[in-house]
Amino acid sequence: MSRLGDRYPHADLPHVGLGTSPTPVRRLDGLGVSQEVWLKDEAAFGDGGWGGNKVRKLEWIIPEAHRRKKKTMFTVGGIGTHWGLAAALYGREHGLHTVLGLVDQPIDDHVREQTARLDASGATIYRYPTVARLKLAAPMILARHRLPYYLPAGGSSPVGSLGYVEVALEIAGQVAAGELPEPATVVSAVGSGGTVAGLALGFRLAGLSTRVFGAVVNDSFRLDAVTTSRLATKTAELLRSRGADIGNVVIGPDDLTATSKFMGETYGATTPEGARALALAERVAGLELEPVYTAKALAAILEGDIPGPILYLNTHGPRPAA
Questions:
Q1: How far apart are the first and last CA of the chain?
Q2: DSSP characters for 207-235?
Q3: pTM for the full predicted model
Q4: Per-residue pLDDT tens for 98-139?
Q5: CA dist 16 → 88, 153, 196, 245, 317 (Å)
Q6: CA distance 111 to 80
Q7: Distance CA 275, CA 219 (A)
């Protein structure tokens, strides 16, 4: 059973296990910053064809699709979307077909590899040059596929955000077990908001004072503290509506940080700071990051202005192609 299920045993919170938890934590040394930095390696999560934070969300999204009696999921992202690939692969394993609306992004070798894997995933793919064109086409896609279960980019719905409420409770358990100190700050990339929204809510439910710092990497839609805290509030409302007694906990814009300072010119663009962070992570910690999300989140830590102890969330979960 999930930690949320254990905590709220009478709540209607369907869940399917797609990975092994807790994911490991360890101290990161050699980064050249004064703060104490720890790693929670979400790359280890996911027993199928992809891993990381997207799979955490799918543990709640897939059973919710079945609960709604849907056979198809429709979601959106860039042409190199990790989320879309995870949704297609895990959805297929659980009897769900995935339809993807994809928008062009800067192309590099990683994006080319992801595009090839998406083409081979069994998903139905619609590709557009801009977000505006995708929005115009969305009603046609929904009608053609008989009103599938729609999921926003990254699976960052209230249901998907339950995945990182779960992770916050997991971190609290690791703190209680003495595996790491209580973090002053957890740092994550923000591509769609569900990870940081779930964490912010989960830490409050767990009784930790940990603050969430989000390095925004997507400029396709608004992802500031107002927007992400609103998603946390909707996730809290979902829990209450499903019978979880969470009291009157409220998450507001002052409860987390979300900054686009480290994004670069646009979504998918590389930055010198991100490239430095990616190389440093490999050299001193053996971490396989990627340039769009996780390298930029680590770059925020390397700037040195975030209160510690810091827990860095590595959300990238690559798996070799089958």
A1: 29
A2: T--PEEEEEE---SS--SHHHHHHHHHHH
A3: 0.95
A4: 999 999 988 888 888 889 999 999 999 999 999 999 999 999
A5: 16, 21, 21, 22, 19
A6: 5
A7: 20
